[in-house]
Every structure is written in C-alpha cells, then in structure tokens.
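Researcher: Please translate sequence to structure tokens.
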Amino acid sequence: MYSSVNTIWVLLAAALVFFMQAGFAMVENGLTRAKNAGNIIMKNLMDFAIGTPIFWALGFGIMFAGNGALIGGIDFLSQGTYLDILPAGVPKYAFFIFHTVFSATAATIVSGAMAERTKFLAYCLYSALISAVVYPISGHWIWGGGWLAQIGFHDFAGSTAVHMVGGVAALVGAKILGPRLGKYGSDGKARAFPGHNLSNAALGVFILWFCWFGFNGGSTVSAEGDAVLESMGNIFFTTNLAAATATLTVMLITWIRYKKPDVSMTLNGSLAGLVAITAGTDLVTPAGSFFIGLIAGFIVVFGIEFIDKVLKIDDPVGAIGVHGFCGASGTLMVGLFSATEYTYAGGASTMPKGLFYGGGFKLLGIEFLGVVSVILWVVLTMTIIFMIIKHTVGLRAAKEDEILGLDISEHGLESAYADFVSFNTNGLPSRAAGHAVAAGPVSMDEAVPVQLIAATHAAASDIKLTKIEIITKQSKFEDLKNAMDKIGITGMTVTNVLGYGQQGGRHEFYRGIEVETILLPKIKVEIVVSKVPVRTVIETAKNILYTGNIGDGKIFIYDVENVIKVRTGEEGYDALQDVE
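Model: Translation complete:
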C-alpha cells in the first residue's frame, strides 16, 4: 500500500534536488571567466543528462543490490527484485528518481574544480563513470546496506556519500589536469582570476540554499507520523542555521584578513555550512548546528587558501574546499555533536551519542573510518579514470583553445554573451552567423582598403582647434557635464573605461589572493573646443573634479589638425558650430 503523503514528499524533494543543477551551474558560471560560460552551462546540463540513463542502467543496481550482488537498475525495476530496500509506502520509481538526482549532484561537483581547461569529451566520460561506478559503490557502503552501514556509519543526506565523493574526485582531477595558464607565476605565487559575474554566483547560492531543504529534508523519505514530522522540522532548522552561521563566519574572517568582506568567498561560506550540516542534520541540536557552521566557515576559508597557495592546485570555484573539506569535516562532526542515539543494521544495534554529549569516541571513530575509506576509494578509482582519459582521448584542452576560451573551441560559440560583445552591421556577414573566415593572412592594403578623393569643399579655418580629454571618476560625471554646459560646451564624447595610474590601482584580495593590478572603472570625456578658451575648460574641470585624494583624474590637451562635419562637409571652426 503506497502512502500518498510519503510519495508526494519524496517526489517534491527530488524536484528540489534536481533544481540544484541550476544552482551549481550559476555558481560555476559566475566564478569563472566569460569566455567559458557556454561550456560551463553545457557541462552542468550534460552531467545530469548522461548520468540519468547511466544510473538507471547500472549505478542504481550497484548501489542498492542485496548481499553485494551487482545488478542493473533495469533488472531491479523489471523483475521487482530487492524491493526490501524501499521505504514504507514509497513507490519504486519515486525512490529511484530521488537517488538519480543525488547521483547527478556528486558528478557535477567535479566540473567546477576542473573548469576552463578540460576537454568536453573528457568531461562527459568521467562524469558517466562517476554515475556508473564510483558514486554507487561507496554509496552502497553507506546507504545500500553495505559494510559501513553495518557498523553504524551515519551520513544522513550525503556529506560524505555525495559531497565528499565529488570534492575528492575534483581534487584528483584538478591535480592531474594542472592549473589554468598563468595561474601561477614563475615564483610560484598564485594569481587571482576573478569570476566574471558574481550576480550569477549569488543567484546560484540562493538556489542551492533553497533546494537544500529538499536535499536534507527529503532524506527522511517519509512525511508521516509525529516523530518524522518533528525530525523534519529539526532538519530544516539546523540546515538553515548552519548555513547562515558559516556565511557570517566567512564574511567576518575575510573582513579581518583581507580588510574588506570578500563576496565570492562568503558565497562559498554559505555552501560550506550546507555541506557540513548534511551528514548529521537529523541528530544535532540547533546549538550543534551553530558550531558546525562556525567550524565550516573557518575550514572553507583556510582550506581554499591551502589548496591554492600551498598545494598549488587550481580550483576556480572552491569545490574542493566546500565539498571535499567540509564534507569530510561535517561527517566527522557527527561524532562530536550527535545529541541522539540511533539504531542501525536493521534496528539490531544502538549507536551512542557524540563525544560532546557523553557518548565517548565510538561514533567519532566509526565516522573517521568511513571518511578515510571513501577518500581512499575515490582517490584510487578517479586516479585510474583520469589517467586513462589523459592518455587516450586527452584530458586537457589545447593551449590555444584555453586562451581563446572553450566556448568557441569546444562548441563553436563566439560568446555566451553575444549581444554584448558582437558588433555586426546589417547586411554584413559575421563569424557567429557561420560565414567563412579568411584562411590565411592578407596584406594591409587588401585588409584595409584606402581610397583618396580630392577635396571639393573649402579648406578649414585658421582658428586653433584643441582636444581636451578628461579621465575621472564615474561619480563626477554629472557635475562635470553641468559645469561644461554653463561655459558653453555643447558637445562631448563620453566613454566608460578601465585603467589605473602610477599607484597601480587598488591592491585588493580575491578569494585570499592579492590582485596584482585592478583596472578601476573610470569615464573618459573628450571635448574639442574652438570658441571657448581652453584654459576656461581646464580650470572649470579642475574645480569640479578636485578632492585632493588619489584618483581625482587627469586632463590631457591635444592639438587638433582639423575637424570635418560629416553631414555638411564643413571643416575646422565651422564644423564645431551648430548654427544651420
């Protein structure tokens, strides 16, 4: 007899966990560079699309096979075998889809650490193998009645089974793959590669935070009975509290260490708290979840710095620190903060509380054994998988492809932001439209044809023309424009630019790494004057822009040989007048 309440809850939770794919895609997209945005989206789409049939045909059967037998998911569903693993009142397909989306989560974690330099084919291959073998076998140990489950190992929703598996696989892959070009200087010092869209990254974190209520709460695989409902409320509460605490912790740490709160690292802090609480969210109190989030905040900041600066492993999104380090530490903290005894091995035995609640070291020791065992399993299998791929189809993209970006080299996509970077006059072919591009070099005369036409209009006047170029802060533009209007300047060209002066820009930190030179946003105002005295323009601009602080800007003065008004053909002084 199926339970409608349980079934609906499991299916709703599965839908929420599926939507985590969108969250991971946005986080990874935002924390990497724009030239790889399309490739990032494609990988996050395909790991779910590839993983679904693979997990159906093979992975699920491995994970939940009885007595260690390895059968395919096809056999499981068609023959109805091993139905004793199903939770009470939950149809087999509901249970199946719930674990399918968990499998996809483990696979997608690896993408971020290996972003911006991995061949797309290689990614598809190792993603398929994670869903087929790597995740299901360790998952069987933990959730499928395997040896870790038999000794009382507790990982409620997957700090180890899902997140640490993905994080360790990411560590192995990023190490074998090597860093992005230019990530480390000749002195070994790490360079910052800021993500191109922190708005996307923040959206991804909010999506993940929201969906985590399905990830953790749905792992009850039931929604009936007072005890289950009380546990579900505790799970939601502790999940949220740990995430919020870790977020606040990381913000404060980065504020102290880097002098300003780091946006991207704080976003990682939210995920760190979510990952860390996932193993013990059903056993800990709100106080325990607070300390788990607090510890996770420290682990993710110093873990990411350790990976980047000491191990010299390039992880663009912090996946190793968030999922690997916090997945492992969150599982270990079950042995410290578990406030509830629980039964295991089919209800035959009872596990004591955690160390801080008077239960001794037994649970902590079992959690440690489970974490170490899964790490060894993932390191061994993923090293073999990555090395085979490296020496067959190849793991890393070519140097030229990495420089241009994987969007164009792997997918034929000029840019994922084409409307912002492509300029194409109507009627003229563009490369993005699929038109051919010249195969070889051409001479400058052929590339830029020049035609000289004899002048048919009057020569320019002999009144001196001067170009004044002003570079200053964006915040000063309105005041500058109004001041120029008052002295009779009726035309100007304004451009948003990036640059720095002799100070080299502000020296800031991105994810714990000092950014060598920051290109600061400025505006460039260009004015050509003839009637208004040049000195008047200069003095007016200086009065408006001056604060006495670094960054007030500069004014450049150029002699102008001639000016031509396109509409009328007038030149020189006359071309600058608006009188008809």
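Researcher: Any highlights?
Model: Confidence is low (pLDDT under 50) at residues 67-72, 421-439, 444-459.
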